[in-house]
Amino acid sequence: MSATNQNIAKPALELKDLRKSFGKSEIIRGVNLEVRAGERVAVIGPNGAGKSTLFNLISGRFEASSGDVILHGQRINGLKPYEINRKGLSRSFQITNIFPQLSVFENLRCSVLWSLGYKYTFLKFLVNLDDANAKAKELMEMINLDKKRDVLAVNLTYAEQRALEIGITIGGGASVILLDEPTAGMSRSETTRFIALIKSVTEGKTLLTVEHDMGVVFGLADRIAVVVYGEVIAFDTPDAVRANAKVQEAYLGSSVADAQAGGH
Prior knowledge:
Layout (H helix, E strand, L loop, with lengths): L2 H6 L2 E12 L2 E12 L3 E5 L6 H9 L6 E6 L2 E2 L5 H6 L2 E3 L12 H9 L17 H13 L15 H14 L4 E5 L7 H14 L4 E5 L3 H7 L2 E6 L2 E6 L1 H5 L2 H8 L1 H7 L4
Parallel strand pairs: 3-8, 3-9, 6-7, 7-8
Antiparallel strand pairs: 1-2, 1-4, 4-5, 9-10
Helix pairs in contact: 4-5, 4-6, 5-6, 6-7
């Protein structure tokens, strides 16, 4: 995404003074974040910083104690996760979330049904839904699993299951995608291929991802939000974050040097 496009793009997702407390413990402490339409933002921070809680607030799994989550100019606080999904935001999880006893093709076909208008009607046999079948086939090719069409999801490799989950995540046509540690547990070669896949399937979409691998972060993100103790201490380009002494002290340390050297 070019700097010019970033400057003119309208916010796809805004967080305004977002807060979340569990009892007396304030986990998210006044987060303000504005993600432009079409850009890729990585959220990083140490364990316990509040990154997963932030994702749960955005996607409706948790209700905010105060503050606002705004999607395409509309406040979505208090909506259920499926309602937020239907407004154009979809997410993946740290633990792979697929239908293990369905085939690759069947998983993907399930993901596109609602967006194509089929909702809860079972009056038609799925095999006769030409548009759903065509969309599932397209997704299958996008995530490079077309040769595994009839393989049960449970029998895929870990990396293939993660690719399938991304296919399911984008299958509903959401314009804002949240990926929670998408490359966790992958080898370096798998990670490299997966970065290319993420870039390809999220082209033209807004991406917000939590990631610990600094090689992935600096290779994927247009901007990086650094979260420490429930607060965003920096939100800037990868180069600016690399050079930020406050960020290095709080979190990055030697990981920055590794990323600059091309390592993970």
